[in-house]
Amino acid sequence: MSETGFAFSAEQNQFRDMVSGFFAARSPMGRVRELIGLGLPLDRDTWQALARELGAQGIHVPERAGGSGFGAVELGIVMEEMGRHLYPGPFLSSAVMTTSALLAAGGDAAEGALVALSSGDRVGALLIDTLDDPALLGTGLSVSDTGRLEGTAPLVPGAANADLWLAIARDQPSGRLGLFQLNDAPACQPLGSLDLTRPLSRVVCAGLSCVRLAHIDTATCERLWDEWNVALAHELVGAAEALLAGTIEYLKVRVQFGRVIGSFQALKHRCADVLMEVELAKALAREAARTIAAGLPARGAAAMAKSQAADAAMHAARAAIQLRGGLGFTWENDTHLWFRRIKSGEMLFGSPAQQREWLVAHLEATA
Amino acid sequence: MSETGFAFSAEQNQFRDMVSGFFAARSPMGRVRELIGLGLPLDRDTWQALARELGAQGIHVPERAGGSGFGAVELGIVMEEMGRHLYPGPFLSSAVMTTSALLAAGGDAAEGALVALSSGDRVGALLIDTLDDPALLGTGLSVSDTGRLEGTAPLVPGAANADLWLAIARDQPSGRLGLFQLNDAPACQPLGSLDLTRPLSRVVCAGLSCVRLAHIDTATCERLWDEWNVALAHELVGAAEALLAGTIEYLKVRVQFGRVIGSFQALKHRCADVLMEVELAKALAREAARTIAAGLPARGAAAMAKSQAADAAMHAARAAIQLRGGLGFTWENDTHLWFRRIKSGEMLFGSPAQQREWLVAHLEATA
Amino acid sequence: MTEADDSARERAIRAELGAWLDAEWSVDRPLREWRETLVAAGWAAPAWPKAWHGRDFSHAETMVVSRLFRERGVVGAASTGPRSLAAETLLAHGSDSLKQRYLRPLLTGEHSWCQLFSEPGSGSDLAGLTTRAERDGSRYVINGQKVWNTSAHHADFGILVARTDWDLPKHQGISYFVIDMRQPGVEVRPLRQMNGHASFNEVFMTDAIVHEEDRVGAEGEGWRIAQTTLSFERSGFGRDRAADALATRTGRIYAEYAEEVRIAMEPYRWYPQRAGRPDLLLSLARANGRINDPVVRQEIARALTLAEGARLATSQAEARRRSGSSDVIPGGSIGKLAASVIARQCSVAHTLIAGSHSLLAGDDANAQGLVAEILLSVPAISIAGGTDEIQRNIISERVLGLPKEPRFDTGSFRDIPRNPGRA
Amino acid sequence: MTEADDSARERAIRAELGAWLDAEWSVDRPLREWRETLVAAGWAAPAWPKAWHGRDFSHAETMVVSRLFRERGVVGAASTGPRSLAAETLLAHGSDSLKQRYLRPLLTGEHSWCQLFSEPGSGSDLAGLTTRAERDGSRYVINGQKVWNTSAHHADFGILVARTDWDLPKHQGISYFVIDMRQPGVEVRPLRQMNGHASFNEVFMTDAIVHEEDRVGAEGEGWRIAQTTLSFERSGFGRDRAADALATRTGRIYAEYAEEVRIAMEPYRWYPQRAGRPDLLLSLARANGRINDPVVRQEIARALTLAEGARLATSQAEARRRSGSSDVIPGGSIGKLAASVIARQCSVAHTLIAGSHSLLAGDDANAQGLVAEILLSVPAISIAGGTDEIQRNIISERVLGLPKEPRFDTGSFRDIPRNPGRA
Questions:
Q1: Best of B198, B255, B327, B334 to mutate (most D CBs within 10 Å, chain D)
Q2: Do C312 and B5 touch (CB under 8 A)?
Q3: Ordered domains of chain A (ranges, CATH)
Q4: Of B281, C37, C63, D93, which has the maximum CB count within 10 A?
């Protein structure tokens, strides 16, 4: 934990403005709604423009592997804006989950995939047997000595859009965990998902041919989890800020009892509480990203960032619905789309309660 | 759990008015303050009048043992008013803890003590080795085969005023739990206590002569705990209602910014929330008392009543301090005396978290 | 009456009604025809006045009728949905002409009704409504939009509040009407909620027509009359839920009745989930293997304690009311606020129990998608029927006696700031 | 200035001050005498104007002086307690006569000061104060009561706001004074808090006298001038806490300094407990054998997360401010509100950790009574220095731009409803 604060550089702030402008122009809410209505096909033009114009998919990938050579801080900027604009592309699954796994694996074999993902030409998905706890990785997926992937990945984000497949599975002869690349696309069963902008699939692997990119150890798995959680924490912060801003806007114009409802103290105070919670979440998320970018252990920082961001964002979402009255509960109002995205952000890679447990376990282990 | 609600009878309501009137006249806050200033000596006149005029100490004791022959519902009425008026006499320790233990033990030997306690002639205290969990009873106090009590009761309520001593201890030869009456007063070490109206002592027993009144089993210990918690739940409800009423009164007269502060919506809403929580606590406490009075299993009802009452009362206490501004934080203002009493009510016989754990354990055991 | 009188009266009613049922009741009769008979005989709504299809029965006498209907499996008058609201209001405030025309077909189920009160621009502040009713000779021309209108898509008539005078203070310029929903000027659109159900409608009125004789009460009396409707609504509609069980029986009339109930109840299918389903917590925690997690147990215990506390608070208040005690907190605001807290706590517990399975919805999800439906429905409970904020205002002002909010909506309605809208 | 200039300037200051210290500084000098020398040489408050004991130093230059003082263990000017508040206000708004008389003995520690702002009848609404200052020739007669006056029991002078005109609007009728605390009309009584400490006082003024030349600024300017005091107070007093370490050194001057610090700091002894002591949670949980309880771990994690979040939010905002970013939320209200939430969460966690030991207080209790002191001190943090409610008003109005509360305190102060009081 650093003693003094940090601020974004002018370049980082400029990058944020570019990302925000990109989503505002290329993925406004009308477009998000349209894609949801169509069953969320990949808008490949926008996806590729995101890579071409901003290098977003490879923002944290070294330049030699086709990336921009930045790190977790800049990835956090992208995720924050993605939460703010509710971008529905498979960024979390491809650019965060799959790409981080490839970066962790390292080596030449991974580099080809990294180049393909960073350029936006391919969309990655990662098959894992748990979204809850890295300690459970490898309990459901295994690779036989003939290089065949077996087992079930019960909840896979972004599978419907993917054309580059990785898996974390247990190497059966050795019993060690490894990162594998599949040679063919598996059969995906789309699942009814709470989050309409980030649907899940179930993937059953019955002897799929794959190659091992690397062995990975438990510490690496935990590190991946930390990185994913920190990315999600940023997204949750962006979503919470968008909801709060929209709520404030509504409170300033909506009239009841002859006065703007934003003048009612109980409503004002609720917004103040949400802002305070979101400000703490933002500070924790940024510090956690900086910790990861510095290559430092991030277990505690990630747990704090994720739990606070999820709780703050859920409060923001509940307030956003409540303070809009019946309107906020309608399908036509966009609030529930954020509510759903926040709920999925809350529960992916460990609930807030799980994060808190990990935090204390970490502090006790390092005391 | 009953299907239909119950209401107090006219007689019960009249009894409540008498109890409330008694405390208002005989133990107003000025008198409570005075006794605290004197180190809380027993006001024997008031104590005996409480027994003589209201039969409060023996309200739940059968008439043949000198009591009024009522039960947990009427005991709850007394406790609720005690919390409302912050009566500082050793009622919980003598009339609730010690008397319930004697009632549970039963038999002729207990009857003499019950008569003495019900009449207000004697003040009882019960030595136990835990205030947290009935399952820990008998881990610190034991009685040798020559009838000598050994061990420490680390936290004993009401010891300073007691002249009739009981103990729950493990009978060493048999290893069974028993209720014992001491032949002589033990040495008490008064402890600095958060609750100024219900101080604690530490009692070290080094071979004190005692007689066994009865053996008691684990189920009886749990039942005692339930009864004590239900009594405390009533006290917490009474204390919370007193604080809320006082807060409302203050909010109606205190002026800031040219208006009565009770017109500020944030303050109004906080009071509404407290009232709602207290109403639920009151309903749970009354139902739990009725369950005990009916001789039915009360584990779940007691746990719910105690946890809800403690949480509601702590909210009422925090609101009472906060909404009085600086005044509520002063020693001279009575609010902190209730805050302290509520804190002790919260933690005696199991914290709210402990109660919640017991509730689910009970529901699972009986599912 | 003494108890002996009571029981003599009960025997008399049972005898008369029993004989009549022996003669008339048959599970093979068509539903509508049976109800015509029922209404004509005065057994459809015995509590109503004799002049209007009833028998002037007391509450106790009416209960005897319901009991016998239940015992014999008899289908009663149509009482689903907003019908009862319309009926009670018309009985209390309607002209003879209104009662004459609407009460009978309402009881027989021939006509279906809806309620046209809330507007997009006036939710918590119902009296701020801006739907116009402009007089044009012996008729009114209605323009405006209503919202949250359950069953409007199959309603024949609606009870409507609209503004007839814009110069009076807000509560005084409102009038109360019966509107024919089957006219060109009335358009009903379904309104989908965030949980995917479409239980409500929006109703757009463009130069819709109401005849003078379909005004309830005098011009400007609308707000006062609406209070009758609202207080009946708050009391829970008076619907005989026990009668729903008839829908599962076999026989021609039961099949027709089941269809009537199915249509009327469709909008309410998700209501149990809105309340958070504390009843499912322990079983889902067991099924998901989370029952031994101490943190999960805490959240479950919180939810169960709150739910049981609210249940007991209601039943004890009811018992006190019955016993004539003055120690009764008026109104249902405390219970309504508690319901919100309970539902939210259930949401927290369900999320924790389901873990990453709470990411799923529909048939793929845990517990047949109920958990997802709970998470997406609970936000409604603190809004519908009066927001938490309104309940807290009511509790603090009416129960605790704290001062009212300062008012900014006195004087002519025309001059009060309001939301931009069509009207 | 370039960096090279900066470092040349730093070397020059260090050379001049170093030489002067070589000549003057000694740990064996009496504290008061040393400070007279320090003030005379302009090193006591180098940021102050040259005309008033200072050197017109920039912030950076002043830091060079502090750093050298720290390196050499030099005791600086008296800065404890409300002295700095008085000094900054007098420098900004005082007449030459006021500065002439009060600044020097304030720096040397000869005079001790207190602040007389809050009143029993005006807490959140400071401008509603009712202490009267009535003109009587060239003097004012003061009547009224103040409260929460830290160190008033040993103060020589107080900075006082009182009402000089009751017909003007509330903010306009207030004037600002220096009052001599050692006069018969001023009575100071200690005020004990619920945690047992007596850190504050009540001050009763009965026909107390203030001379015209002890008025700061013009009549009616008091509210504006008080803002200087309050903003300096909010910024944390500017007190050099690093200097406290000197109190532990040996030598005559350090002993005298230690006594000065001890007296001044006495009222603040419980302040760390007021903040909830998140730093103690893990160690106490270990010591009490509760560290493996999952429910306890949740509450500890909540507290630590909030505390770390607030710490980072502050330091990141500071870094953004330094980097010249406009993305800085003004004021400390968010941090102040967070501090309340953190402290309350710590209370919850400490209670759970201590179990029935939280029933004890004082030396008999867990952790030397710290837990009891925490439980009894935390309620202050959401009140002192502006209640949570005031912070939420500020955040929602100034940061989020929501409308202000409607005002009921405009027009002549005489006509505004207020609390009954002595004045």
A1: B255
A2: yes
A3: 10-118 (1.10.540.10), 124-216 (2.40.110.10), 219-366 (1.20.140.10)
A4: B281
The residues pairing with D203 across neighbouring beta strands, listed in sequence order, are: D146, D188
The pLDDT of residue B1 is 38
SS3 D186: strand
Mean per-residue pLDDT, D262-273? 91
Chain D closest-CA separation from residue B300 CA (Å): 20
Q: Which chains touch B (3 or more CB pairs under 8 A)?
A: A, C, D
- Shortest Cα distance, chain D CAs vs residue C141, angstroms: 38
C153 contacts C267 by C-beta, under 8 angstroms = no
Which long-range contacts link A221-226 to residues 24+ away (Cβ below 8 Å)? A221/A134, A221/A135, A221/A137, A221/A168, A221/A177, A222/A134, A222/A299, A223/A104, A223/A298, A224/A97, A224/A100, A224/A101, A224/A104, A224/A134, A225/A134, A225/A302, A225/A349, A225/A350, A226/A288, A226/A292, A226/A298, A226/A299, A226/A301, A226/A302
What band does D239 get if pLDDT is binned at 50, 70 and 90? low
Taking residue D232's Cβ as centre, other Cβ atoms within 10 Å add up to 18
For chain A, the average pLDDT equals 96
Under the banding of pLDDT at 50, 70 and 90, the label for residue C5 is: confident
Query: Average model confidence (pLDDT) for chain C?
Result: 93
- The nearest CA of chain B is from the CA of D39 a distance in Å of 38
Cα gap B346→B338, rounded to integer Å: 12
pLDDT tens by residue, C132-178: 999 999 999 999 999 999 999 999 999 999 999 999 999 999 999 99
D295 with C293: Cβ contact below 8 A? no
For an interface test with D, the pick among C290, C291, C292, C295 (most D C-beta atoms closer than 10 Å) comes out as C295
Answer whether CATH 2.40.110.10 is correct for domain D90-235. Answer: yes
Q: What is the rounded CA–CA span in Å between residue D122 and residue D120?
A: 6
Residue D241: predicted pLDDT: 63
Optimal mutation site among B260, B276, B307, B357, interface C, most CBs of chain C within 10 A: B276
Per-residue pLDDT tens digits for C29-73: 999 999 999 999 999 999 999 999 999 999 899 999 999 999 999
Contacts of C325 in chain B (CB under 8 A): 7-8, 13
* Chain D residues closer than 8 Å to A308 by CB: 305-306, 309
Q: How many CB pairs under 8 A join A and B?
A: 8
Please report the pLDDT score of residue C294 as a whole number: 98
The model's pTM is 0.95
B47-66 burial, b for 16+ CB within 10 Å, e for fewer? Answer: bebbbeebbbbbbbbbeebb
The whole-number pLDDT of residue D422 equals 45
Predicted pLDDT of residue C237? 52
Instruction: Please tell me the distance in Å from B188's CA to the nearest CA on chain A.
Output: 39
Q: How far D282 CA lies from chain C's nearest CA (Å)?
A: 18
Q: Which helix (H) or strand (E) holds D14?
A: helix D3-24
Which among B320, B312, B352, B315 is positioned nearest to B337, based on CA atoms? B320
**What was the pLDDT predicted at D332?**
85
D353 with D288: CB under 8 angstroms?
yes
CB pairs under 8 A between C and D: 11
> pLDDT value at position D52?
97
Closest CA to B93 of B134, B169, B54, B42: B42
HSE-up of residue A246 (Cα within 13 Å, Cβ side):
25
* CA atoms of B53 and B55, how far apart (whole Å): 6
Assess B152–D contact: CB distance below 8 Å, yes or no: no
Q: What tokens were used for C408?
A: 């900014």
Positions in chain A whose pLDDT score sits under 70: 1-4
Number of H helices, E strands in chain C: 13, 8
Where does the pLDDT of residue B107 fall: very low under 50, low under 70, confident under 90, or very high at 90 and above? confident
